[in-house]
Design a protein that fits this description.
Number of strands: 6
Low-confidence stretches: none
Mean pLDDT: 86
Number of helices: 3
Shape: rod-shaped
Strand order of the largest sheet: 1-2-3
Structural class: alpha+beta
Helix content: 40-55%
Number of domains: 2
């Protein structure tokens, strides 16, 4: 999982706590102006009320950003869960030529045909990419450089004599 979204949410939460603390301090200052039956300085009261309005607006905007960051985090966790569920349907398989690929577990087929997937794409890119072909080699459908040997068919000559 990409931790940048998580770190962003933590940073926003920390910022929101600071903004809330500032707003609480401003409220305390405003309340102090009215304590003891004093008549508050209207200019100072107006300044503090404007400051409070700004702090509350910033806190509200930060809360919206936190909400968006948490939603993005939740979506990322759901994608990760879905990937892990899909990955658990496969097992590592060694071909007769020693290549390692992932094979769909028979009991997890869910009406899908038996197939193999690319281990590079699965582990590096978190992508289920089918291996295609029926000969000695099978290619990854996503990256043609990912080639896996499944068999080694000997070369057959059409004549009894050597080519040379």
């Amino acid at each position: 999982m990409d931790l940048s979204t998580f770190n962003e949410a933590l940073g926003l939460a920390s910022s929101a706590v600071g903004l809330t603390g500032k707003a609480a301090s401003t409220i305390t200052a405003i309340k102090g102006m009215f304590e003891g039956g004093k008549s508050p300085d209207s200019g100072e009261a107006s300044k503090l009320l404007n400051e409070l309005a700004n702090e509350l607006t910033l806190a509200n905007m930060t809360n919206v950003q936190i909400s968006q960051a948490l939603k993005a985090l939740n979506q990322e966790l759901l994608r990760q869960d879905e990937f892990e569920r899909e990955k658990s349907r496969y097992e590592l398989f060694q071909t007769s030529e020693g290549a390692l690929v992932f094979r769909l577990i028979d009991t997890m087929r869910n009406n899908q045909p038996a197939h193999f997937i690319c281990p590079v794409c699965l582990n590096r890119d978190r992508l289920v990419s089918f291996l295609q072909g029926n000969g000695d080699y099978r290619n990854c459908q996503t990256d043609s450089h990912h080639v896996y040997q499944f068999a080694n068919t000997p070369y057959r000559s059409n004549s009894d004599s050597s080519y040379f």
